[in-house]
Amino acid sequence: MLKKPYRLSRQKDFGRLKHSGRSFFCPSFRLRCLANNSTHSRFAVVVSTKISKKAVVRNRLRRQILEIIRLNLDKIKPGNDIIIAVNQKALGLTSAQLASEFLSALKKNFLLNG
Fold first, then answer.
1. Distance (Å, rounded) from C-alpha 3 to C-alpha 1?
2. How far apart are CA 67 and CA 90, in angstroms?
3. What is the pLDDT of residue 103?
4. Which InterPro entries match (predicted)?
5. Is residue 13 classed as helix, strand or coil in its secondary structure?
6. Rg (CA), the chain
7. Digit-coded pLDDT (tens) for 25-38
8. CA 96 to CA 113: how far, in whole Å?
9. Closest to 109 measured CA to CA, from 80, 85, 88, 87
10. Most buried of the four, 12, 43, 48, 94, by CB within 10 Å?
């Protein structure tokens, strides 16, 4: 789990991202991001019941993505709010495949340092 300063949790922030954020798509998930004028980035992972009816499966995907974020926080540019909405294709991927796809999506959208 991410530490509290790195979590996006207020409904107001979700609404702001929905209306003003940029969307980026890749096969396993959709990213929405917006600058937040802060010294760190905040994240939220959304896994719909359309992905799986089982909470165990949804929570496992959410935990895997949050762990990928936690391990790569130093590589991610600060000052962004990011929502990761998981797609159906993420179900069949391993953690390593999810990590490589997530980091490549961030790099493609200029959200990684270096």
1. 7
2. 15
3. 93
4. Ribosomal_Su5_D2-typ_SF (IPR020568), Ribsml_uS5_D2-typ_fold_subgr (IPR014721), RNase_P (IPR000100)
5. helix
6. 13
7. 988 999 999 998 88
8. 20
9. 80
10. 43
Q: Which of 42, 37, 40 is nearest to 83 (CA)?
A: 42
Q: What single letter denotes the amino acid at residue 38?
A: S
Cβ atoms of 30 and 18 within 8 Å: the answer is no
pLDDT tens track for 51-97 = 999 999 999 999 999 999 999 999 999 999 999 999 999 998 999 99
Domains and CATH numbers, the chain: 4-108 (3.30.230.10)
How many whole angstroms separate alpha carbon 42 and alpha carbon 101?
19
Q: Are 79 and 110 in contact (CB under 8 A)?
A: no
Q: What letter represents residue 15's amino acid?
A: G
Rounded Cα distance between 52 and 49, Å, is 5
